[in-house]
Design a protein that fits this description.
It contains 4 helices and 3 strands. With about 110 residues, it is an alpha+beta fold. Helices cover about 65% and strands about 15% of the residues.
Length: about 110
């Protein structure tokens, strides 16, 4: 599957995930949200989003919309697969520790019976 086909199959969701709404104060990033989350917030609490945006502009915050933002240009499927691999490795490390600890405890106990 080519790169173009992969992005087209991701379609709208992939575009909304990779497009970021950023709010900065001078050079300091304050908020970095996906467009999909921003739209969900706008749909669920429009008064809060509008009032928050007005207050932020009055206080000197800068809004920026960035397509294919750095760190988010991978497909959402890739992000999910990476996260699944990370979770699996953490779960594996937790399931291995008790066995290693039990073996160490047995060795310690055997050492006391000289």
């Amino acid at each position: 599957m080519s790169q173009n086909q992969n992005h087209s199959t991701g379609g709208l969701f992939s575009f909304l995930y990779r497009t970021r709404v950023k709010v900065n104060k001078d050079a300091t990033p304050i908020v970095n949200l996906s467009l999909i989350f921003s739209l969900l917030a706008l749909l669920s609490a429009p008064w809060l989003v509008v009032v928050g945006a007005i207050v932020a502009v009055m206080m000197g915050y800068q809004f920026k919309v960035e397509k294919n933002a750095q760190g988010f240009s991978d497909s959402f499927d890739g992000v999910v697969k990476t996260a699944a691999g990370n979770v699996k490795s953490v779960v594996d490390s937790f399931t291995q520790e008790p066995q290693d600890t039990a073996a160490q405890a047995q060795e310690d106990q055997d050492g006391w019976h000289l």
